[in-house]
Amino acid sequence: MRNLLLPLALLAVTLLAVPLAPMAAGDDRPDHDRARTALQRGEVLPLRDIVARAEAAFPGRLLEVELEEKDDAIVYDIELLSPDGRLIKLRYDARTGTLLKAKGAGLTEPKHGHGPEKD
């Protein structure tokens, strides 16, 4: 049952909770349509890949994901709740999957060893 719930939860997050800054001037399509188009064009990595990276580096429960345009880059902003109840905020480059930033009280280096810019 758990194996079925995770893909459904990721699909729901992808389709319903992925707010986007406008990816193209004058683009008035719903946010999830722009996200799907960006994925189909190969402009961003699939959400499941980014979430897998985040959860491997920072164990916790996924709370929120946003796909946004920041300073001419498309990024995934992710919020996780750590096992001890701390909020972890992560920013990944949506094109490359590179961890750009990690914020959270008492945050240590990610498990994979490459540290992001920390605030």
Helix coverage percent of residues? 25-40%
Strand order of the largest sheet: 1-2-3-4-5
Instruction: Using the coordinates above, name the CATH class.
Output: Alpha Beta
Largest sheet: 5 strands, mixed
The domain count comes to: 1
Which residues form runs of ≥5 with pLDDT under 50? 15-26
Oligomer: single chain
Rounded mean pLDDT score: 76
3D structure, described in words:
With about 120 residues, the protein is an alpha+beta fold. The chain is built from 3 helices and 5 strands. A hairpin with a 5-residue loop joins strand 3 (about 85-95) and strand 4 (about 100-105). The longest helix has 15 residues, at about 1-15. It is elongated, with a radius of gyration of 14 Å. About 25% of the residues are buried.
List the main descriptive attributes of the protein structure presented here.
119 residues, alpha+beta, Nuclear Transport Factor 2, Chain: A, 3 helices, 28% strand
What is the fold's blueprint, element by element?
Layout: H1 2-16, H2 31-40, H3 47-57, E1 61-70, E2 73-81, E3 87-93, E4 99-103, E5 117-118
Parallel strand pairs: 4-5
Antiparallel strand pairs: 1-2, 2-3, 3-4
At a glance:
It contains 3 helices and 5 strands; from the N terminus they run αααβββββ.
